[in-house]
User: Which sequence fits this backbone?
């Protein structure tokens, strides 16, 4: 059974989905973002942030085998042309299998469909290479926020 699951995982049948704010999938995504991004840095997800997220696009990757949310991200509008990519998170056991890349590609497609022409983001320094592979380029100097070093990255769609 484990072997079968392993084989099926490698040939993963996954789909990218839009997630409605406030839905049960949204709650799963909040938990995943907490586990992958915030908890390791000793940060908390504050419920007071939730209302802000109502206007964001929430995107997830679902493993069809067990209907599990294995990754996700948020897109937050900055102005009519620009949208900000945030909180890209892939569940630890699924990292390195192309999920992150598929998520970002799907997010770019959704952003373009919604009329945006530019994506901006603040990438933690150790993942800059991941975004460079996807056509993002660094803008300006690295900067520090709450002890974490970030680089502003941009991509024209
Ligand atoms: C960073 C993250 C989103 C990448 O997703 P992933 O599914 O593991 O990455 P993928 O399998 O899609 O990798 C795609 C390519 O990027 C490369 N890559 C992945 N992480 C990288 C990193 N940190 N630096 C440089 N390259 C990286 C992969 O080797 C792969 O290259 P290839 O196409 O030449 O084989 C994921 O590992 C993650 O959630 N990490 C923890 C949270 C985090 O740091 N999020 C980013 C917040 S800014």
Assistant:
């Amino acid at each position: 059974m484990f072997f079968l699951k392993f084989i099926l995982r490698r040939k993963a049948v996954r789909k990218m989905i839009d997630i409605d704010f406030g839905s049960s999938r949204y709650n799963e995504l909040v938990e995943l973002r907490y586990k992958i991004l915030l908890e390791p840095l000793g940060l908390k997800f504050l419920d007071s942030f939730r209302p802000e997220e109502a206007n964001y696009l929430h995107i997830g990757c679902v493993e069809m085998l067990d209907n599990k949310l294995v990754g996700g991200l948020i897109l937050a509008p900055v102005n009519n042309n620009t949208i900000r990519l945030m909180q890209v998170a892939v569940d630890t056991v699924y990292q390195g299998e192309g999920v992150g890349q598929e998520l970002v590609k799907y997010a770019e497609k959704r952003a373009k469909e919604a009329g945006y022409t530019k994506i901006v983001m603040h990438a933690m320094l150790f993942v800059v290479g991941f975004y460079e592979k996807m056509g993002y380029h660094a803008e300006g100097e690295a900067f520090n926020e709450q002890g974490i070093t970030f680089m502003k990255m941009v991509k024209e769609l």
About this structure: The pocket of coenzyme A is lined by residues 36-37, 88-90, 95-101, 123-124, 126-127, 129-130, 133 (CB under 6 Å).
